[in-house]
Amino acid sequence: MKRFLVLILLMANFYTLLAQQQEKLHIKYYCTNWGNTDSWDRFCERVKNAGYDGVEAWLPGDQKERKEMIDALQKYGLRLGLLSGGSGVSFDQYRESFKRNLEEAASIKPDYINCHTGKEYYAFEQNKQLIDIGQVIMEKWRIPVYHETHRGRFSFAAHLTKDYLTKIPALRLALDISHWCNVHESLLADQAEAVSLALARTEHIHARIGHPEGPQVNDPAAPEWKSTVSQHLAWWDQIVAQHKQSGAKVLTITTEFGPAGYLPTLPFTQQPVADQWSVNVYMLNLLKDRYKE
């Protein structure tokens, strides 16, 4: 009887441990190809060696380059997240372009699609049509479709995005909160309610550090940005904690510091004041260490 009870306890502990492991949140890290000038093969080799899980990119329109991208991803065992958006002079043109591009992106079967959705000057109902298209395509292809908080899009400002989130319960965000810091010229202390709602509805993070006068600090490792970096980390900590509490299995993060032009440059020479690749890898290692399992 004693042996039987010991066996029961051991089995109970085993299944408890197994359940805990199954519920553990897995964070996948993606590298932006924004600003990349290497071949897809060389780029993916660097991405893999740096410790990323995948790449986030716009789907190449050129079929030859598209094949090179897919071949390189397969060669180095990397995942893919796609960006998608629309274009057109009129809203009708934009809507058709947005739908067509999103369908084409979904046909590649990426891990997720991150949409640059609508325009800041479109009416609520117009932008909602685009969000609804994303929902239909997500259900059709069973691929997550997110809408990025981004200047120039429906989600360019915290208070307006709050209105969309309130009225559209299915709306899920790719949070790039650096844009809001720039738009509102603050670290958003006076918009706690809007930010809290956005964090609760975030499924993908663009890990770039913004500040009140721009969407990208020159180098997040510099001591003068310590408090700004800490605020961004506090926001991301909430998203990670919420995913763990909800039992989510995956959270995706892209390190997305941009190239020279977006990255500040010196006058006359246009020399970037920091190295884009090094900054993104710094963010990768900072986050992997912070959220290590």
UniProtKB/TrEMBL annotation:
Domain Xylose isomerase-like TIM barrel as annotated: residue spans: 45-207
InterPro entries named in the record: Xyl_isomerase-like_sf (IPR036237), Xyl_isomerase-like_TIM-brl (IPR013022)
MF-aspect GO terms: isomerase activity
Pfam families: AP_endonuc_2
Signal peptide: 1-19
Annotated keywords: Isomerase, Signal
Protein name listed in UniProt: Xylose isomerase
Organism of origin: Sphingobacterium athyrii
